[in-house]
């Protein structure tokens, strides 16, 4: 399983700069991020960043402190794309046919590390951890009367099943194909931003198997700024 962080935005560049200057520093930040994943199930880590991100060596060194000898690689982009989905498409040459977990560096689970392996007994194309929430900063799953998932809504509370923003993809080539079909469908909408929730809906429309797995994570946090991150650490210590 390859763990991929699509962080190719100027917003991430500024946040990382702030983390470096904060009182807690990089070690606290990355140690908390690393607790989210079962490291023994990770075969490699990839960061997708802008070429203006100047801290690649530092980020790699810090991650090695917590992830050991897991190979770490960087894919650099010259400009921001039209959303996280498009950012991920740029990694097709490196991730073709591989199992991939997509996450980000602005979220963490402070409970038990997340299971990253697929169950060998299930024929599942994508697994998506969910949790109970009504916060409109998350995306939500809508089910039919038989409790089968029929659509994902981006930042719209249509149920209590909120998506964490961590996606386990069994075959990245299939993710790529579904994304390309989505881009073809909306090729006239030049200002449209494409989210991973859009790709999940493409999987569902194509009758692919998307499993939304409820987690017991109580201490799941997503933060938009250094202030929010430091507030999480403060509350944890209290």
CATH superfamily of the largest domain: Spore Coat Polysaccharide Biosynthesis Protein SpsA, Chain A
Biggest beta sheet attributes: 8 strands, mixed
Structural class: alpha/beta
Tally of strands = 12
Number of structural units classed as domains: 2
Gyration radius over CA = 17 Å
- What is the CATH fold-level name of the largest domain? Spore Coat Polysaccharide Biosynthesis Protein SpsA, Chain A
Structure description:
The chain has 238 residues and is an alpha/beta fold. The protein has two domains: 1-106, Spore Coat Polysaccharide Biosynthesis Protein SpsA, Chain A (Alpha-Beta Complex), CATH 3.90.550; 120-165 and 172-222, Spore Coat Polysaccharide Biosynthesis Protein SpsA, Chain A. Helix content is 34%, strand content 23%. The protein contains eight helices and twelve strands. It has helices at 10-21, 25-34, 56-67, 84-89, 92-95, 172-185, 196-205, 226-237; strands at 2-6, 44-50, 72-77, 100-102, 107-109, 126-132, 140-143, 149-153, 161-163, 167-169, 210-214, 220-222. Strands 1, 2, 3, 4, 6, 9, 10 and 11 form an eight-stranded mixed β-sheet that branches. A two-stranded antiparallel sheet has the order 5-12. Helix 6 (172-185) packs across helix 7. The chain is globular and about 50 Å long. The termini are far apart. The model has no long low-confidence stretch (mean pLDDT 88).
């Amino acid at each position: 399983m390859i763990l991929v962080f699509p962080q190719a935005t100027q917003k991430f560049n500024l946040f990382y700069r702030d983390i470096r200057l904060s009182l807690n520093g990089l070690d606290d930040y990355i140690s908390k991020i690393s607790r989210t994943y079962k490291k023994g199930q990770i075969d490699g880590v990839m960061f997708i960043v802008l070429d203006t991100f100047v801290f690649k060596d530092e980020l790699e060194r810090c991650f090695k402190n917590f992830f050991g000898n897991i190979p770490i690689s960087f894919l650099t982009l010259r400009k921001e794309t039209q959303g996280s989905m498009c950012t991920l498409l740029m990694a097709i040459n490196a991730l073709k046919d591989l199992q991939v977990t997509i996450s980000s560096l602005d979220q963490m689970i402070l409970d038990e590390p997340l299971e990253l392996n697929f169950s060998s007994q299930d024929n599942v194309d994508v697994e998506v951890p969910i949790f109970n929430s009504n916060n409109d900063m998350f995306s939500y799953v809508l089910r039919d009367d038989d409790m089968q998932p029929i659509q994902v809504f981006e930042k719209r509370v249509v149920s209590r099943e909120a998506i964490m923003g961590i996606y386990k993809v069994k075959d990245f080539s299939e993710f790529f194909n579904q994304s390309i079909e989505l881009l073809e469908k909306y090729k006239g909408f030049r200002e449209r931003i494409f989210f991973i929730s859009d790709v999940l809906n493409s999987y569902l429309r194509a009758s692919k198997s998307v499993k939304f797995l409820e987690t017991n994570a109580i201490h799941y946090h997503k933060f938009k700024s250094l202030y929010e991150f430091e507030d999480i650490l403060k509350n944890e210590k209290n």
